[in-house]
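[Meeting: bench + compute handoff]

Bench side (C.D.) handed over the final construct sequence. Compute side (W.E.) agreed to return the predicted structure before the next meeting so the bench team could plan truncations. Sequence as handed over:
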Amino acid sequence: MKNLFRVVIIVILGIGTAHCAKKSHVTTKAAPTTEEGLGFIAKTTDEQLHQLTSQYPNAQVRALSIKNGIYEISHAPEAAVQSISSQSVYKNMFIHGLSMNERPQALSLEKLAKNTSDDANAAIDTCKKSESAPEVDADLSYDTNTLTVELGDEVTIKALGKANATVGGDVRFLWDVQPPGFSKQTFAKGISSSQTFTPDSPGFYQVALVAQGADSSCALLVVPLFVTANPELSAPQKPVTVKDQSPFVHLTYVRAAEAWKKSKGDNVLVAILDTGVNYNHMGIRSNIAEKTSEIIDGKDDDNDGFVDDRYGWDFMSGDRFPFDDEGHGSHVAGLVASPISGVAPHAKILPVKVLNAAGGSDIATVVAGIYYSVDSGAKIINASLGWDSLPEPPKPLLDAVQYARTHGVIFMAAAGNGDETGKGFDIKKKPTYPASFKLDNLITVAATALNAITSYSNFNDELVHIAAPGGNEKEFLFSLSTLNPAQEPLAGMVGTSMATPVSVGVAALMLSVNSQLSPVDVRTILMETGDPLPSLKGKTASGTQVNAEKAVTRALDLKPAKFIL
């Protein structure tokens, strides 16, 4: 049955469908999509959850980490949740992408009213805002709770509107569809009662609908649409070889080829917390880690609370397909460990999807991804994400990074890509999480281009430890793309999101030759062996850009000392 969609602003939220786990009252379900769906993050026991759900039958429990007893509990009073929690509960909240390469821009009436059509009868040449504007709604052919369709599904959106009583007359509708960057589709703006199309690309679509009354007053409705792809993991592929490394300038800057004479990152598992990974890309398939303890059979074979999670997990949709709907995560994974563009071409990748195609998420989803990464055996977590608009340090996120610390896992975070003007700022004065946390397993990374810190990169001479190539408008970093209709294998991006996986790749090279290195060892070596850059002085704690050759050499030099007792 179709549902009316009554939202008048863009909402960038989590998406997906439910998936049952071991307990009947606990699910590894999708991330929340509405404010009403947000719950409280709590640490408790299964017995106490039974007590709560018996008292509040409408309560919903989302498993964040069954192993560690961490859940999101919604549709129950805070006091009731607190009564069963062994620590203070935390109200979950939505967060928007800070480190994404591109951020969705809100559509406006002014933008839509211009150049709508060559046909004057079909165009809305002027839109004025007034109290007499008509009402506008939309009838969607897809689920209004998830706002998601599978790639290849047809989408129909019917316009619904009613003229203001003081104006009367007919209401006409103008449509505009903005597809994601990889799409080849074009949409003509014009007047009609409905819009039907079949998306050609995964990603975030914005469908704008303007209702105009007889007095030219207008009302705007923007319908978010997430298009996802959930392919099975393809058959194993032989690693590709690329002789010409010249397009991948980051490899030259960090002296990766020289480091490869000693290490290529073998036996190191890196978790990619991101928008997912295009795990069937020829440039990453051979590097995707597979859990041999998990069989695709509809059962939780390894008893970790996640059914059939053989090659990662999608915490946005609550399913076993952590496929990249945006491109950001694939690009990041390729910079870490790809035979084409990776600094550590033999390292293994664990895809952990915690961001949607618009770069949005929520605290609980990211927290769940961190616990999952640690419990799955990752040695390094790449977090090319961050948020500078949070009212206070999110304790569940801090606890999760601390959990990684207690298990000896390195957590590498992007410093962030500046303010709304694109200018980098001091993350001590304006905290950005998780980059601004003070933990000794955390390594925060700034971005350079052409051997100088970029104008967009955030900084601080205490909290930002190192820098790495991140690119700028004059020098893009090229890495793997996600599924796209043009079948382009590579994409160019810039940001601290890119600098972070370059540094992660160097850390993977180090751990491969010396698995005894602690997170503190790795951070110290990266800081001390990097190449000093004048522009980094006072901007990072080390003042250096990572150097893979020197870092690997130092890691090898430390190896004997680790075994002298």
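W.E. noted at the follow-up: The chain is about 20% helix and 20% strand. C.D. will use this when planning the next construct.
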